[in-house]
Amino acid sequence: MKKSSFLISLTLFLSMTLLTACGSSQQLVIATGGTGGTYYPLGGGMADHITKNAGVTATAQATGASAENIRLLRDKKADIAFTQNDIAEYAAAGTNMFQQDGKIDSFQALGALYDETIQIVVSADSNIKSVADLKGKRVSVGAPGSGTEINAQQILEAYGMTFDDTQLQRLSFADSAKAIQDGKLDAAFQTAGTPTAAITELAATTGVKIIPIDSDKIDAIIAKYPYYVKTTIPANTYQTVPEEVTTVSVKSMLLVRSDLSEDLVYKVTKAIFENTDKLGHAKAKEIKLDSVLSGVSIPIHPGAKKYFDEKGVK
Question: So which residues are the signal peptide here (predicted)?
Answer without folding.
Answer: 1-21
